[in-house]
């Protein structure tokens, strides 16, 4: 008989699981939840309840004293000055949000509230994502931090149907969009990218979280992208993390916009052009010619070292440094412009491509 039990934690917008020993004290639930959701507040501000009964912040009473057994359900709230709010409603004023042409527009309309906090302050900007749903910087930061703390590395739209409470979108947001909307600081961006890499390594080793109950699942190579969760029995697609709606022996999951592989082509082919010195129409996002890390050009010349593998290349012509360490072209940007990169010309990787600023 296992000495561990799993408890379901409901934040109001998502559910996850925590693993504890049966003999754990109640205080260990609070510390585990705080770490999982990166709650940078005093533990006694966390409020947990089971079937309407609030749990005390106790170092003496155990899980069994409050009837908590395997698969018991907990509701999570955080106490803030002025009242009690769900975890996803925690917000702090972020830097000014800007539109991203071709991808994100900005709104302050009271008719378009933040999908998580439901706030529609006309003085605070919110982003209209490519899928059409609206979210603010603070909600984006809190939501993505909670996903990363759960071991995930993909950012799916959290929009839910107001009547059923079930997800009605699940479109994947590329990381450069997430980072832009969240208005991440340098430290936050480093934190997020490190966690994305760590979480992806778990997938590379053959582990993935069930999108329904978040229990870790193993992938059977004989089943392709089809995975059956051993806990809730949900069948889902390894690539897009949505329900498998085709037959189990099908090669594709049946979701129209899922081709079974990472979708990077839109970023590389639709990113806006920019002027880099003498080059007036250079794509603003490139894949490193060596490791394929997605890199966004910010300013200065086109010569750069990939922050992932340190490979030196020109952002305009995509040629790399010579064996002697010399640049293959002048920094003025008058070298031949390489065409936009296409996914089918990029070799497959065993690590997740992420987007960084240079």
Shape: globular
Number of strands: 22
Helix-strand pattern: EEHEEEEEEEHEEHHEEEEHEEEEEEE
Percent strand? 15-25%
Helical content class: 10-25%
Label this structure with key terms.
alpha+beta, six-stranded mixed β-sheet, three-stranded antiparallel β-sheet, disordered C terminus
Give the topology, please.
Elements: E1 4-10, E2 15-21, H1 26-36, E3 46-50, E4 53-54, E5 73-80, E6 83-86, E7 105-107, E8 126-128, E9 134-135, H2 137-149, E10 155-156, E11 172-173, H3 175-182, H4 186-204, E12 207-209, E13 216-218, E14 226-228, E15 235-237, H5 265-270, E16 273-276, E17 279-283, E18 285-287, E19 294-296, E20 303-305, E21 312-314, E22 355-357
Parallel strand pairs: 1-5, 19-22
Antiparallel strand pairs: 1-2, 3-4, 3-5, 5-6, 7-8, 8-9, 10-11, 12-13, 14-15, 16-17, 18-19, 20-21
What features would you describe in this structure?
This protein has 358 residues and is of the alpha+beta class. Helix content is 16%, strand content 23%. The protein contains five helices and 22 strands. It has helices at 26-36, 137-149, 175-182, 186-204, 265-270, and strands at residues 4-10, 15-21, 46-50, 53-54, 73-80, 83-86, 105-107, 126-128, 134-135, 155-156, 172-173, 207-209, 216-218, 226-228, 235-237, 273-276, 279-283, 285-287, 294-296, 303-305, 312-314, 355-357. Strands 1, 2, 3, 4, 5 and 6 form a six-stranded mixed beta sheet that branches. Helix 2 packs across helix 3 (175-182).
């Amino acid at each position: 008989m296992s000495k561990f039990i799993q408890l379901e934690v409901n934040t109001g917008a998502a559910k996850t699981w925590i693993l504890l020993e049966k003999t754990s004290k109640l205080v260990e639930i609070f510390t585990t939840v705080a770490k999982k959701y990166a709650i940078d507040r005093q533990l006694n501000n966390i409020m947990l309840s089971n079937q309407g009964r609030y749990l005390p912040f106790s170092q003496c009473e155990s899980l069994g004293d409050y009837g908590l057994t395997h698969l018991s359900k907990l509701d999570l709230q955080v106490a803030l000055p002025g009242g009690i709010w769900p975890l996803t409603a925690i917000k702090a004023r972020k830097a000014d949000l800007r539109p991203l042409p071709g991808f994100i527009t900005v709104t302050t309309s009271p008719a378009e509230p933040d999908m998580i906090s439901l706030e529609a302050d006309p003085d605070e900007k919110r982003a209209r994502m490519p899928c059409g749903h609206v979210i603010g910087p603070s909600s984006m930061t809190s939501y993505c931090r909670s996903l990363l703390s759960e071991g995930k590395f993909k950012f799916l739209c959290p929009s839910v149907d107001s009547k059923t409470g079930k997800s009605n979108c699940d479109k994947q947001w590329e990381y450069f969009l997430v980072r832009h909307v969240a208005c991440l600081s340098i430290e936050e961006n480093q934190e997020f990218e490190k966690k994305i890499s760590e979480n992806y390594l778990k997938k590379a080793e053959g582990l993935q979280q069930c999108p329904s109950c978040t229990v870790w699942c193993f992938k059977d190579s004989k089943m392709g992208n089809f995975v059956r969760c051993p806990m809730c029995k949900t069948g889902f697609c390894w690539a897009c993390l949505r329900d498998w709606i085709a037959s189990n022996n099908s090669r594709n999951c049946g979701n129209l916009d899922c081709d079974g592989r990472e979708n990077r082509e839109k970023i590389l082919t639709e990113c806006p052009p920019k002027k880099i010195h003498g080059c007036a129409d250079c794509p603003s996002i490139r894949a490193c010619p060596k490791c394929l890390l997605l890199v966004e050009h910010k300013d200065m010349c086109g010569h750069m070292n990939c922050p992932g593998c340190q490979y030196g290349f020109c952002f305009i012509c995509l040629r790399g440094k010579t064996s002697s360490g010399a640049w293959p072209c002048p920094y003025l940007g008058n070298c031949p412009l390489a065409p936009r990169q296409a996914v089918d010309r990029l070799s497959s990787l065993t690590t997740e491509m992420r987007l960084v600023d240079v």
